[in-house]
Amino acid sequence: MLKELFYFLVYPGLLFVSVAGGLLSWFDRKVTAMVQFRKGPPLLQPFYDFLKLLLVKETILPIRGSKITFILAPVFGLFGALIASVFIFIPLLGIETGFQGDLIVIFYLLAIPPLSYMIGAMASGNPMASVGASREMKLILSYELTFLLVIMAIVFKSGYTISLNEILEQQAQQGAFIGSIAGVILFIVSIFVIQAKLGLVPFDMAEAETEINHGPFIEYSGTAYAIIKLTKYIMLFTLPAFVIALFMKGLQWNGIQILWSVLKILGVVLLLTLIRNTNPRLKINQAMRFFFIWMNLLAIVAIVLVIFGL
Amino acid sequence: MAFKDFIFKKSLWLFHFGGASCNNCDIEILDCLTPRYDVERFGMILVGSIRHADVLLVNGSINQKDKVRLLELYNQAPKPILVVAIGACGCTGGIFAQGNTFAGPVDKIIPVDAYIPGCPPKPEAILAGIVKLLNK
After folding, report:
1. Which residue range(s) make up the domain with B59?
2. What is the pTM of this model?
3. Contact yes or no for B4 and A56 at CB 8 A
4. CB nearest to B48's CB, from A39, A56, A214
5. Interatomic CA distance for residues A132 and A217, integer angstroms
6. Element at A111 (helix H, strand E)
7. Which of A177, A228, A234 has the alpha carbon at shortest distance from A206?
8. Of A139, A261, B78, B133, which residue is least crowded by CB atoms under 10 Å?
9. Hey, is the C-beta of B64 within 8 angstroms of any chain A C-beta?
10. ipTM score assigned to the predicted complex
11. Count of domains in chain B?
12. Do the Cβ atoms of A217 and B49 come within 8 Å?
């Protein structure tokens, strides 16, 4: 019991992923600043933001709308992201082996944070938030199928296993999955999927701040918004780590491998940041078409390639 | 308390309210966010919703219709919130001070923490005002 609590709250749970996610969020903002020839925020800026929202600011509840749902939705989102990250990092960091079928559990848990944003937005009673929530819903409908196809292709490629630990062992024996043609295609598809899952720029129509003023988060302030920020930091660390587990042999925490592991994570986040800084925001119908037609097509081509052993 | 104060000053999020402005101050405020002046060095970003704001930037002369909206925004903002009046119109009313529809400078409607005069103030002046606000 004590061991599980330690896993959940300290390592690799709440404390570890939120500190790492905060640092990655700083990296993202710093790279954005460098792309725009600015200086950028100081290293601890994400933590200042989080602590300010948590400790200093007032939390305002909406008069119209459901107060309890409004305040509980971010908490559910945080717990979903947290449990998903614990299930991902336990096999990934070699702490324990995880259990059979955890890939499917992770897939469903990663869908909880966007769903909770949507529920919270609907409970706030703000029309802008409703627009944001409906866009978020359409976005979920479009990328989840693609994400499932990517995971299916990985399952086929690793010899029909649905355990993250066995996928990592397969890659340790026969080389990283990104070394094959199908692996490269699937990696490209999954980068776009996590871009949409994180709500970064080509797919940020749900929280378009110049258009519908942060969409689902428009009514959140103070502690509730701090929890949403924390969820975002955690997702920014967890999703790249999941992609690295599926395609790049995972992370190893010994000797020179630590450097490699950090570079892998920074590389994937750098890719996401560069995509975010060099693209305009899509309309929701363009994003749906992008995922439904092109990304699904690429994923199915990759599955066929996997079945032929390429 | 000192820790809360330190944290608050490290991460001020800006919300921009333009009254009946001639747009010069708006453009100078946006200049502060550009690569040349870059207020994100101090942890400041422009947010779209008043619920996330820590600083309410007010510029332009405030007429009868703006007064209602400014009060509404101030009441909707989560406390603590700082108010900064930017430009001659925000600080005193400028050339509109004797007008029919003028509803008083900003500090007659809501409490103001810092004044940045100028018509329009240069981005350097706005940065100097920000630094004074941080050291206050």
Report:
1. 10-135
2. 0.90
3. yes
4. A214
5. 9
6. none
7. A228
8. B133
9. no
10. 0.86
11. 1
12. yes
